[in-house]
Amino acid sequence: MDDKRLDHKLDCKACGTVRMDIPENATEATPVHCSSCGAYLGKWGDLQDDFYAQARGTQAFDLNNGNITRK
Ligand SMILES: [Zn+2]
To answer: Looking at the whole model, is its pTM more than 0.70?
Structure first.
């Protein structure tokens, strides 16, 4: 296991992947769903807050088209 991965806040609770289906014109209030299984993950604003809170300082992760990748 890779212990440097993001914590489970951003993982899909249903299938465990970190792939978000984010609409192009997403706003803070846009609901975001898992691109693998379609489960609701949360509001885009909240997910962004979680992502940047975890990525800040480490520069270890990128958020590209909804897919979180490790640099
Ligand atoms: Zn899923």
So the answer is: no
